[in-house]
Amino acid sequence: MNAAAQFRIIFRQTLRAEFADRERVISPLLFSMVILVVIAFTFGEPAPELRPSAFVAQVFLSLILATQTALSRAFEPEHQDRAFDLLRAAPLSPSALFLAKLAVVLMQGASILVPSIAVSALFCGVALPPERLLAFGGLSLLTVAGLGSLGVTLAAMTLKAHARTVLFPLLYFPLATPLLLAATQGGIGIIAPESIVAADTMISGWITVSISANLIFLTLGILLFGELVKSD
After folding, report:
1. Of the candidates 64, 90, 59, 214, which has an alpha carbon nearest to the alpha carbon of residue 146?
2. Average pLDDT of the residues of the chain
3. Interhelix angle for 94-124 vs 51-72, to 10°?
4. pLDDT tens, residue by residue, 170-224
5. What would the pLDDT profile of 55-78 be if each residue is shown by its tens digit?
6. Dist CA 214 CA 175 (whole Å)
7. Domain boundaries, the chain
8. What is the number of other CB atoms lying within 10 angstroms of the CB of residue 67?
9. How far apart, in Å, are the Cα atoms of 61 and each of 106, 206, 213, 215?
């Protein structure tokens, strides 16, 4: 069986495992909505000049906190079913498992991202033209992909650690900081083209940083995942 067929099988099985427990799907989304509601009722509607920055900050703050919750539990079904023990003997491509898990994580991230953008735009009073909305959505999905690659790798790395719930965020948040900085600065430039950070060269630079971080996290995940899965 080639890697593509393995990917399809693992992807379908992972989806079934995720949707078997509705709480795993719903809780990150509810968590992100609660964060946005608390921010909105605490600070109210921002001043007009601060609306783009507040909108971008709220979107990515809710995104990273909600995805951290989901990613830290990414391999709980496999761990509970002792699937990782079986992978040592199975003729299975670790890259196929990594990419299948990443694909599921991207679906979860997108399901959090879309309502977060809508709710944040409502609370901040931001109306986005279609072209800016598409550009911001593309940058946001790129951020989700980078966070997903990093999170899946760290989830596998910390799966058998005794202090996994503490160790995962200690590694996740510092390593995700460059990606989030690129996302916020590039996002503000897209949303508010009149701002000082919105020069074409600066936006292109932040997008380049985001793409570079994605490539680094994805490459490291593919290269290291086999050893992480098979290690004791």
Report:
1. 214
2. 82
3. 150
4. 899 999 999 999 999 888 888 876 655 555 667 788 889 999 999 999 999 988 8
5. 999 999 988 888 887 787 777 766
6. 12
7. 3-230
8. 27
9. 17, 18, 18, 22
